[in-house]
Amino acid sequence: MTNHTTTTGAADSKTSLLGMPLPAGVSPTLVADVLAFVEAKMGGNDGSHDVEHVLRVTRTALRIALAEKAAGRAPSVDLATVVVVALLHDVTDTKYTVDPTEANRGITSILVDKHQYAPAQVAHILQPIERISFRKEQASRAAAAAAGLPPPTIPVEVQAVQDADRLDAIGAIGIARCFTFGGTRYRPLYQGAVSTDHDDLVRRTAVEGSEVGSEGSLYHFYEKLFKLKGLMKTETGRAMAERRHQVMAAFVSEFWREVHLDGDDLPQTE
């Protein structure tokens, strides 16, 4: 992809929101324009899918891409594509928008009209966004397996963003996001009539795509979040996922201990 390196003072102040210097070849003006579009589309979202989530994912994706490049595993990674895909990865999320095609038109207008991207370059941005979702990847892998084909190849730029998005779904931040989203949908924490047993829930969700059958927020850990560590695409992402997975696993373990009053050393009652 062509590098766009125009800079302006206004853009410099805007890109400082990323919280890290932009690598060479990534236009501050491009980042500023895309970020303004993201803020307009996502500024009213709840904290599980807000602009801060997008910024965290963008910083993490850049860190992953730079680490993979430094290690020689991704020598030709396009950092501008990493940044733009990361910034835009949630603007077409159907949980928050009724018309993803309208958002795609807005993205195209920014890239083509303001930054002289060719149609093929725009497709290089939009198509990967559709590959980041956990559910869509599951469906894609299942379709490939049913056809006797290997899983679809994912470009390294998309791998970095996908890993970053999944890292933001686990660990302490992931826990907070899970319950924030559940709260906006008035979901219960769990349902005693469904299950409060860790081993039972692990068994019931062992097969890819399986679900507990309840929208309780705790069950989301078993259906998706506990599986993300094993789905990281990059070596850097896998290393970063280890500690976050342990934080999340410890939280869920303690949650069930408290539900069952395990280990509280309560005085015996008659």
TrEMBL record:
One Pfam family linked to the record: HD
UniProt-listed SUPFAM superfamilies: HD-domain/PDEase-like (SSF109604)
Domain HD/PDEase: 46-179
Protein name stated in the entry: HD/PDEase domain-containing protein
